[in-house]
Amino acid sequence: MLVRALFKHWSLRLFAPDRMLRRTYETFKTLLRFDIRSHELMAEFEELYHEGRQEDFALTRKRYRQMAEAVAGMVAAFVQMVPGQAGSLHDYFNKYDFYIRLLLAPPEQFLIPPFVVGHNALAEIALIGQKSAHLLQLRTATQVRVPPGFTITTTFALLVEHNHLRPALDLLLAQIDPESSSGLEDISQALMTLVRRMDIPDTVSQAIHAEYDRLASLYPPEALPRVAVRSSAVHEDGNHSFAGQYHSVLGVDREHLLPAYLEVLASKYTPQALLYRIYAGLSDEEAAMAVLALVMIDAVASGVVYTCDPTAAGGEESLLIHSIPGLGLPLVSGETLPDVYLFPPGSSMPSQIMAGCQQNRLVLHQGQLCEEPLTVNDEPSLSISQAQAVRLAAIARELETFFGRPQDIEWALESNQDLYILQSRSLHIETVVPTPAPTAAFLNAIPLLTGAQRAASGIGCGIVHHLDSMEIATIPHGAVLVTRHLPPSLVRFIDRLEAVVCEQGAVTGHFATVCREFGVVLLVRAANALALLPAGAEVTVDGGHGMVYAGKVAPLLAAKGKVGAAPSVYSRKIRTLLDYITPLQLVNPSAATFRPQSIRSLHDIIRYTHEKAMQAMFGLSTIASGTASQCKKLETDLPLALYLLDVGGAFAGEREGGATIALEDLQAPPFVAIWQGLSHPDIDWKTHLHFDWKGFGDMALSGGIASGGSKDFASYAIVSQDYLNLNMRFGFHFTLVDCLCGLEARANYCQIRFNGGGGDYQGRSMRITLLGRILGNLGFEVSIRGDLLDARLNGYPAEELCARLTQVGRLLGMTKLLDMVLQEHDIEGYVEQFSQGAGRFYRADTAISRSPEQ
Predict the structure, then answer these.
(1) What mean pLDDT value characterizes the chain?
(2) What distances in angstroms separate CA 211 from CA 132, 220, 290, 420, 748, one per listed residue?
(3) Which residues, listed in sequence order, are joined to residue 426 by a DSSP beta bridge?
(4) What's residue 378's pLDDT?
């Protein structure tokens, strides 16, 4: 293939240089399209990292596939342009493409037996998930009662492959926009429908029924067990709790076991579970799902034990028991006020007992969940006795010792007084930032609410919004949400919330666990909060002391900081990804190190390919004997080396011969227009505002501006009577102006791309902001991603479009090297100076005072 390409290339060079030029130009345009796309995608990856945004890994992988295709397209186009100069570019691209795809690759998927495991022996966490693994450890190594059951292993990948669903799942996942609630709902419904309709392979369904039948054989025929079908995902109950994110199906018999299994699997894709996983930085495949089936307990009381206070500094050893009558679902979902027993460190007796407020209890009747009202004839006012609480506390401390760290334990008390452990996972302990105590220092701060219980510490400040009077989807960013209950769907909006104040709720609820993980302040048991905190008021929430103040409280805000927020796994992965994509080693095209062997990233491949392609296109590699003579240097007094290549009548009026061309000899209105702006008499081409270029190195050339006779650092323009493609460089920044300026106004356009620079990311971004403001005032549609700017103008008549090009030329001249010195407070004044026709920018504090006309 390469030999054939070389033969064709050299044949054209020798015998048909004009045809070679046209062919090379068309291929170069293709390369430029790939180059533009590569930079767009590189900017999108940088924006993800620098702005802290997160997205589903299906979209990240899709974004990278598009970038890989663009870079590969550049390399292929370059090979077609100059087959003998591509060297080992393909090899280096394949190398970094392999590294990045390996980084983004999903973990190995479980596709082989066993598909179901009984609870009579230990199994790997990767096979059965952490929830099941912890219960198996308790069953096999302790005397703690755990309901009998079995676990359907992480066979979800097998079901996806069996149903050929991975492309459809990835297509939907890649469309998720965390900011679009309605779009998320639609995608979630589509994903869950796909899973609910999956066909379960016979080998899997037979194994599930066989394990249920083995379990049922332990019971009399008239009392066959009903099971609770629950999630046991690999990452659940570990560093990420996934508390309350997945569905459980209670009271399931043999007939409904497979649909319940699919329902739990489908809950991977509820809106809240999707966003939780994305915020946790996990891919869909990483969140492998096993499903646990436990025999239902006829619970007279249920609840949660925390073996220490998770919101106390360092995790105090005080043990908390939360209890309600019947099944525990209303407790963990934040719908009720539980009874609370507090056991001090080392004490076997509670030091404090607080009665909750329950008017109903949840029970299972003939396989159906039912809510029954409590009556005065029921058990005593407390859901469990003090003796039962003491026994439960002793068991909880045994589990803490067994696992070697504080535990979050779900339990149930059967009617025969047997205590069963339904779940035991590590308790997330906050790293609490001390906040000032509410003393005389706050005399000027009015407490609107006091006495609430902290569930997630920290300081939050924002505008109050009442959940009872608004749609959940309309919660704005930075809100202080006040609510009566804590619906599970709130997790979907965790990134929008400064704080949550709930009239009911509990420290042990699922939402409280998620708030502690993500650093959102949460107060519960906040009596009359909806009345005391009016909607629209600005408040400061003190999560450490259970208080809410009117307005902004400076001493508290000074100590404000997110606490306990999980580190962003996604951000770390994107940083590693960027290490293979964005570093730029190949800076100086005239250096001996500017070669494929010095490539260390995809950016280097893009840079090398683009640079060498430009050299090939504009005659620096002498494409053909007759081609170089068509590339002429513009005669100018400006310190710019600019070479022009005519592809359509632009040189028609030139004087015969010579390697240069004068501006007056050009028949290229778009180019002439932009040059008039660049040559504005007030533009300073000799000095550089407040920046010392001494010692910046030879790379900077003449103050960072390409000048002199070297074509290595020159700027180039492809010109015709109605077309301009200008690639202009000032030091390390690059500008592409692509413009059609003909008789048909509807077809006319001007597109500008600006990126790069010698300053740091912040400096480059500020210059981009300034350019965007000015171009927007000129009528351009502006898009900014990181330090990359795109601007487009459509449908202008030729005369008006050329006037805009003159303004663009002036702007390019005025903003050269500005990323080195620009300060944020300069931007507003510079925008105004440009609009008044200035040819250079002046700071308000400079000693120079000169009008634009001077």
Answers:
(1) 82
(2) 15, 16, 15, 22, 71
(3) 407
(4) 53
| Residues pairing with 730 in the sheet | 705, 733
User: If DSSP codes are grouped into helix, strand and coil, which group holds residue 794?
Assistant: strand
- Is there a contact between 644 and 778 (Cβ–Cβ < 8 Å)? no
SS3 assignment for 322-388 = EEEEECCHHHHCCCCECEEEEECCCCCCCCEEECCECCEEEEEECCEEEEEECCCCCCCCCCCCHHH
633 SS3 class = strand
Per-residue confidence (pLDDT) for residue 717, from 0 to 100? 83
**Which of 348-354's residues contact partners 24+ apart within 8 Å by CB, and which partners?**
348/390, 348/393, 348/394, 349/390, 350/321, 350/386, 350/389, 350/390, 350/393, 353/382, 353/386, 353/389
d(CA 756, CA 760) in angstroms, rounded, equals 10
Amino acid at 329: L
pLDDT at 628 over 90: no
d(CA 790, CA 787): 10
**Residue holding tokens 């004009």?**
18
Instruction: Tell me which DSSP letter residue 429 carries.
Output: P
Nearest residue to 304 via CA among 354, 352, 339, 271: 339
* Cα distance between the two ends of the chain: 63
DSSP-derived secondary structure letter, 433? P
Which tokens in the block code for residue 357? 């407020």
Of residues 395, 384, 393, 378, the one with CA closest to residue 356 = 384
Paired strand residues for 542: 459, 547
Average pLDDT over residues 206-222: 94
CA dist 342 and 319 (Å) reads: 6
* Residue 654 and residue 665 in contact, taking contact as beta carbons nearer than 8 Å: yes
Q: Specify whether the CB–CB gap between 544 and 454 falls below 8 A.
A: yes
Can you tell me whether residue 748 is helix, strand or coil?
A: coil
Q: What is the per-residue pLDDT across 669-710, written as a single tens digit (0 to 9) for each?
A: 999 999 999 999 888 877 643 333 333 333 333 334 444 445
**Whether the Cβ atoms of residue 392 and residue 419 lie closer than 8 Å to each other:** yes
Closest CA to 654 of 637, 635, 627: 635
Q: pLDDT (tens digit, 9 = 90+) per residue, 460-484?
A: 999 999 987 666 667 888 999 999 8
Cβ atoms of 438 and 447 within 8 Å: the answer is yes
114 preceded by a cis bond (ω within 30 of 0): yes
Sheet holding 547-550, edge to edge: 447-449, 547-550, 538-542, 459-466, 479-483, 497-502, 521-524, 453-456
pLDDT at 51 over 80: no
Written as six digits, the tokens of 108 are 């190995």
